[in-house]
Specification:
The chain is α+β, with helices and mostly antiparallel strands and 685 residues long. Among the domains are: 45 residues, no CATH class; 201 residues, no CATH class; 158 residues, no CATH class. Helices cover 19% and strands 22% of the residues. A five-stranded mixed sheet has the order 22-26-25-24-23, covered by helices on one side. The radius of gyration is 25 Å and the shape is globular. The protein binds 2-acetamido-2-deoxy-beta-D-glucopyranose (NAG) (5 copies). One 2-acetamido-2-deoxy-beta-D-glucopyranose binds next to helix 5. One 2-acetamido-2-deoxy-beta-D-glucopyranose binds next to strand 15. Keywords: Kelch repeat, Membrane, Repeat, Signal, Transmembrane, Transmembrane helix.
């Protein structure tokens, strides 16, 4: 595709034809890109392209929200043509219609009136209450440099089409709410709440920022209770007034800091059930020193306000920043499939690629399943895009596509989560409610939106059992759970009624929550005998397990001693780089639109190259990255034990307990608690 830039029109025609041939009778987005590119370059005067929102050459890092089948896109960055490298920040306000069907070459999009007031920002979040949109956070332009104004919440009332400013928001403690950017937002409409996790503050988010001060990554969890909704934790449970209620859960001290990481450029996904108010999953992202691995997932219990960690199984996606994710629920609720698409690969520095892979994280089994996209019209790799689930189709909008493609227009793609296929059209399914919930789940306000029509694909059934409606036989994480919602909770199980009126799955009632399902009714015949059997089996397993752990512990201890000896020898000879693991370093300025919006703190300074190369260099120390000679490994140990920053590729700051040995002598308890990790350590060696 890179050569397109210099091609003549005849070459374009032939490319277009071969593309068509590849994908049989339907024209794929690639063809559209080629043709549009050609039109853009035709020697006619520039067209007022913004007249049709589908015509932007590229759009990324925007904020989006879906309300009753209308997808709203606010701001972010966009280019009219591939040469444009400044003034990409905008406050355009667009819709994509998901209530009617369209071809991906010509999605039904509309420009809403340009807002006056809400600033042009990227990488913030758009919450919604079902009738109102709320714009939180985001960063201002770095080219030309814009000066942020103090944060105001802007709300958009959908029925009256009006924007409203809520200036100087403060938390319940009276502390001004900061404008964070590149954090991960999540909307929980039935609770009337939005959350925003992490992100960072710097001179493009915060007025009066001293240019010599590094970007600060936040470990905060910000909660906004929408106006008119009540939240038992604030205002004595009375409904919030017209400015809503802000709470910084970090400030309130209710966060368990051990499980609470700093993080930017990741995603948060809501999954109903398992706890009173459902859970959130934090995936991908990182900081300038460390990236979030996806072998262990951060799980947040909304009601308990606590973070936990859960190990996953299956083949695990590489760490990345700015992917998108959206979840879809089996009709009976027995599984939720989180789809994670694309994102930016961070290393090696200077050749960051945009992934185009698709992954499913199946909950509650916490198994990763890579989607087979062979022979499919997969959208070009991207990052900073958004995903919206509706009518069980995942609609991908925009994204930075690297330098290989000059334009990606309209840049909207549709993935059928039941067939696991990229489609050339979006289909507006008949039936379903305004929230596009599964019919079996319509009575449950906490049920996922957008799942209407979803059937569990064969590839997922092979892993979690059951059938297209659900009935998953894997009902708990494949890896051991020690605490938290997956230790005590359950999915919400719904009764699925077939077309002929028969019941497909018979279990508890909707909304039962963690302790409401099971248990009641249906007592087994000989409970005492069953319990005795189970207890005996448990003891046998425990004995075996302790023996195994003792063996692992002895191996690990021996290994540790060897590495300490080695790293002590090495630290005499090899100097550690001055700057460790800045990592992603999307530093190519104009070439790399994610630029400043990536993880690097110093992209605006000339030292950035050096730092970024440091990042690349340390990447090999990664837990999941390709290993690693013994030397690298020892280097890693050395680094940690001298208390410097973690290298690129290690787990998140606070999850550094997942690092290889952490530079601490292994303990038997540690092995007991996490035999798998310990096993990895000794296996790696
Ligand atoms: C969206 O649907 C919900 C539920 O039916 C309804 O309460 C709400 O008013 C609708 N919002 C808009 C903007 O149509
Ligand atoms: C929340 O509180 C923490 C700790 O005081 C602070 O660092 C962070 O900036 C606050 N977050 C926001 C978004 O205001
Ligand atoms: C990462 O950013 C922090 C500020 O957020 C800064 O103190 C630190 O030096 C940076 N680390 C590197 C390796 O650049
Ligand atoms: C998605 O795929 C499933 C399974 O092949 C099919 O039954 C369904 O009609 C498709 N949905 C759409 C919207 O194309
Ligand atoms: C479920 O748990 C909640 C809180 O732990 C408790 O108040 C409630 O009584 C429990 N319900 C049942 C049916 O056990």
């Amino acid at each position: 595709m890179a050569s397109l830039r210099v091609m003549g029109s005849s070459a374009l025609t032939s490319i277009a034809c071969s593309c068509c041939a590849c994908y049989h009778d339907t024209c794929t987005p690639y063809v559209t890109i080629v043709v549009r590119w050609y039109l853009d370059r035709a020697p006619t005067p520039l067209l007022p392209r913004q007249d049709n929102p589908a015509d932007a050459c590229l759009r990324w890092s925007h904020q989006s929200a879906v309300v009753n089948g209308t997808l709203y896109l606010y701001g972010g960055r966009a280019k009219r043509d591939s040469n444009q490298d400044s003034n990409t920040w905008n406050n355009n306000f667009l819709t994509v219609d998901l209530k009617t069907g369209w071809q991906i070459s010509s999605p039904t999009m509309e420009h809403l009136p340009q807002p006056s007031g809400p600033p042009p920002t990227s990488n913030g979040f758009l919450w919604n209450s079902g009738n109102t949109l709320y714009l939180y956070g985001g960063e201002y332009s770095d080219n030309p440099e814009a000066s942020p104004v103090p944060y105001s919440l802007w709300s958009y009332d959908i029925p009256s089409s009006t924007w409203k400013e809520h200036p100087k928001p403060r938390t319940v403690e009276g502390v001004p709410v900061e404008r964070s950017a590149e954090g991960s937002g999540v909307n929980i409409p039935h609770l009337g709440r939005g959350l925003y996790f992490g992100g960072h503050v710097d001179r493009f988010t915060t007025p009066g920022w001293d240019i010599s001060v590094f970007r600060v990554y936040l470990r905060s969890l910000l909660e906004f209770t929408f106006p008119g909704f009540s939240n038992p934790a604030v205002n004595d449970g009375r409904a919030a007034g017209e400015d809503g209620i802000w709470r910084n859960l970090t400030d309130d001290g209710v966060q368990d800091s051990a499980g609470f990481t700093e993080r930017a450029d990741g995603v948060l996904v809501y999954v109903p059930g398992y706890s009173e108010q459902g859970i959130l999953l934090g995936l991908a992202g990182g900081t300038n020193k460390s990236y979030t691995q996806m072998n262990v997932i951060d799980v947040y219990d909304i009601a308990e306000q606590k973070w936990y960690k859960q190990a996953t199984t299956g083949s695990i996606p590489e760490y990345r920043v700015n992917p998108c994710a959206a979840a879809v629920s089996a009709a009976d609720g027995s599984s939720v499939q989180v789809h994670l698409f694309a994102g930016q690969k961070l290393l090696p520095y200077g050749s960051q690629e945009q992934y185009d892979d698709m992954w499913i994280l199946s909950i509650p089994s916490f198994t990763w399943i890579q989607v087979d996209q062979k022979d499919q019209p997969v959208p070009p790799g991207r990052s900073g895009h958004t995903c919206t689930m509706w009518n069980s189709q995942m609609v991908v909008v925009g994204g930075y596509v690297g330098t290989e493609l000059s334009c990606d227009s309209p840049g909207i793609y549709v993935f059928n989560t039941s067939s696991l296929k990229w489609n050339t059209n979006y289909a507006a399914l008949k039936g379903g409610n305004e929230l596009s919930q599964q019919i079996s789940q319509e009575q449950d306000p906490s049920a996922l939106h957008g799942s209407y029509g979803y059937t569990v694909p064969q590839a997922v059934q092979e892993v979690i059992g059951g059938n297209a409606m659900g009935s998953a036989t894997v009902t708990a994480p494949a890896q051991t759970v020690t605490a938290g919602p997956f230790a005590t909770g359950r999915p919400i199980i719904y009764t699925v009624t077939q077309g002929d009126g028969s019941v497909a799955t018979e279990t508890a009632t909707p909304g039962a929550g963690p302790n409401g399902s099971g248990g009641s009714g249906r007592g087994g015949p000989n409970i005492a005998a069953i319990i005795a059997g189970v207890v005996a089996a448990l003891f046998a397993i425990l004995a075996g397990y302790l023996g195994f752990c003792a063996w692992v512990y002895r191996r690990q201890l021996a290994l540790y001693k060897r590495h300490v000896a080695m790293s002590q020898r090495q630290s005499l000879g090899i100097a550690a780089p001055a700057v460790l693991g800045v990592g992603p370093g999307n530093l190519k300025g104009n070439d790399s639109p994610l630029g400043k919006s990536s993880l690097d703190a110093t992209s605006a300074t000339s030292s950035s190259n050096v730092n970024a190369r440091g990042g690349a260099g340390r990447g090999v120390g990664g837990y999941h990255a390709v290993p690693t000679t013994k030397n690298t490994f020892a280097g890693g140990l050395d680094r940690v034990s001298t208390n410097s920053a973690n290298g690129g590729g290690v787990n998140t700051a606070r999850s550094s307990t997942d690092d290889l040995m952490e530079g601490q002598e292994p303990t038997f308890l540690g092995v007991l608690l996490s035999p798998r990790r310990s096993l990895k350590v000794i296996n790696r060696d």
